[in-house]
Amino acid sequence: MDHLETKTYDVLVVGAGGAGLRAAIEAVDQGVSVAVVCKSLLGKAHTVMAEGGVAAALATTDSRDGWRVHFRDTMRGGKLLNDWRMAQLLAQEAPARVRELEAWGALFDRTPDGRILQRNFGGHQYPRLAHVGDRTGLEMIRTLQDRTVQAQRIDVFMECTVARLLTDDGRISGALTYRRESGRFLLLRAKAVVLATGGIGRAYKINSNSWEYTGDGHALAYDAGADLIGMEFVQFHPTGMVWPLSVRGILVTEGVRGEGGVLKNSRGERFMFRYIPEMFRGDFADTEEEADRWVADVIAGRKAEARRPPELLTRDVVARAIAQEVREGRGSPHGGAFLDIASRRKAEDIRKKLPSMYQQFFELADVDITREPMEVFPTTHYMMGGVKVDPESQAATVPGLFAAGEVAGGLHGANRLGGNSLSDLLVFGRRAGAGAATYARAQSGEPGVETRQVDAITAELLAPFERKGSESPYAVQDALQDMMGTCVGIARTADDLQNALAALGELRARAGRVGVDGNRQYNPGWHTTLDLRNLLTVSEAVTRAALARRESRGAHTRVEHPDSDKRFGTVNVVVRRQGDAMTVVEEPIVPVPGELRDILEGKD
Amino acid sequence: MPDRRTIEIRVKRQDGPDRAPYWQSFAIAWRPQHNVLSALMEIRTNPMTTDGERVSAPAWDASCLEEVCGSCAMVVNGRVRMGCTALVDRLDQPIVLEPLTKFPVVRDLVVDRSRMFEALKNLRAWIPLDGTYDLGPGPRLSPEVQQFRYALDRCITCGCCLEVCPQIHRDDPPGTGFVGAAAIAQALLMNLHPTGQLNADERLDALMGPGGVASCGNAQNCVEACPKDIPLTHAIGEIGRQTTIKWIKDIFVR
């Protein structure tokens, strides 16, 4: 082995989004040495894109709110599959985390008397999202970044990717990383590792996630032997742009439909009328005339007598409807549905009511939503599933491994409420940092790193340079994304999922033939090749878990099992590595204790 | 009217910090509504110059692709801007891409912006809290102050304001050059924070030192270049006023 740059820390944090930075700050406050590695630059992580706000029962806008209501909303949103203790901790601790963030310099919109203004959001009973305009994620990252920069004992390795976690006798001993810029390897020895790597959106073509979201943490944990839970639960936002390429996947807010935007297929039909579920029939308009009347009333600020347009059905219903229209050959030219507000409202009204939407698409892609319909398709938005963790410390099932934020599983159950992801980052980022620091302090001596293990990994990482030109990494990633969208999308059938498993086998073989040109210095082709391994692992985990859950619940829909099954309401699907094989088992979830069950049943 | 069949992009490349720059041209098929980043991504999948030479893909920074993260600032046809909002159809061809000139080049269009973090450190543009006291229910803040702070708050640390500032030089020795508009606006943001006010004097002291607010030459380029329309010149003026008051006060207190 050539000289290998090596550094040693107590705690290594992987990822510099909200969860990673919060974990690093907490660990360093507890007096241990900390390093953060991140794939992009500090302050540019995916968290910056969060718009809605951070859910916390501060009760500054509506005094009726409290942790019990937040707990209930979160559990109901997750179809009761959540880890109840995590949901409780989230609800109880989020207000303190938000106030702490404010004390550190973060800015939030205010009520007229100067308190934090909270906004309403889907699934939250009271206005609960603390926010600053539509830039809450950026604010959170900026504040945490400032806090990280001022801490003397946090070393940040930017543009650096973790290739593998290292273990010594079953315990975490560090991570082998490569610097994206120079291509050189960097060995970071650590007693504890906190994964805060976010989600898996890049396994799908249409996704709202940043390029970093290749499921790294999920795959690293799986490789190290940790359990993954809830991998079948992938949240799709019904309306992401499919065209032009420059904005593919970017969210189109529900507000467009709330302001009267309609969904149409290639024949010009307003197809949502055909998709109103039986249980909602009484609440939604069944004619265009009635739907238009509702919009007219709402725009005029009158109390609507008519029933709501079917475009405002829940996210899962709208997403499935669009997918079905496309599957049955009634899609738009680029494989979506038309979302038309241009012909429904005056240009000046659209610009006034939806300023960021108008401006964003105009600036990023020269699309004028006041003049032409958008082409939309469900976009992969959030991963509920992830590393199984202890709710108090965020410890994974491998000693020394911790996980927080989107990469951790359990909190959101079968479906996440908007706003809960940002509070998740703060509450469990802090807990993971504390858990990792406590664990690291309790270890006697440095964990060992075997040279042989490291040599074998570096050889594997460099292998693509020896296989010149047989297969392009981008072509394999493209094929994977298409396959996942088609076979493991919103509405899943056993046949599709079986086909997906077969396809994943072929894609894995193709990935093994990928060759890379050039040298190791900033070589995006090589980086993509290494990302493929993670994408294939998480794609297989999602597929196998989806196959195992033979029911529909929350974000997971099985076409041949359209209803929820009581038996599946009591189990997690656990994905685990056994040798080279991926195994799937069901494990019972911990039942909600009596006093919390009363809260769920509304007896608070 | 540019040629609609192809998009030609000339990239100023540099293999490493101490290497000499050189130019390469790439062409891709025209597609509607490309921006500079989506065009670069297409080049990346098959990096071949217009001379038919297979080369390594040009390097650039990007993360969010929706002008929130501030990674992709570059010089496009001679003007600094974000790559994600530089629409190909509105640019003269060939489109010429260069790295920011006021920062050390890491590779191709990637530059080292750590100078911006150093400036924040110099100004202590944060709230120092040691976590030992109860934060209580949080401070009140009027919506008016909040709105003004929000205007300063939109900074995405892209570096455009430094790129266009005549007082900023690429070879400024670390810690001595002008801190720049972005950091001054952040210092004001923190000076307006209910708790941050308690340390306002420390920030003003730093801003009265070398490379502080007096180094501003009032060229006002920064406010023109800022992609987030932050009132930078206003912030510099306000900090200038605060430092003057503090200077006079210091004379009497001394």
What does this structure look like?
The complex is a heterodimer of chains A (604) and B (254). Chain A contains 16 helices and 20 strands. In chain A, the strands form 5 sheets. In chain A, strands 1, 2, 6, 7, 8, 9 and 16 form a 7-stranded mixed beta sheet that branches. In chain A, strands 15-10-19-20 form a 4-stranded antiparallel beta sheet, with helices on one face. In chain A, helix 1 packs parallel to helix 11, helix 13 runs antiparallel to helix 14 and helix 14 packs antiparallel against helix 15. Chain A starts with a strand and ends with a helix. Chain B has 2 domains: 106 residues, Ubiquitin-like (UB roll) (Roll), CATH 3.10.20.30; 140 residues, Fumarate Reductase Iron-sulfur Protein, Chain B, domain 2. Helix content of chain B is 32%, strand content 13%. In chain B, a hairpin with a 2-residue loop joins strand 3 and strand 4. The N and C termini of chain B lie far apart (67 Å). In chain B, 45% of the residues are buried. The chains are: A alpha/beta (604), B alpha+beta (254). At the A-B interface, helix 3, helix 4 and helix 10 of A face helix 1, helix 2 and helix 3 of B.
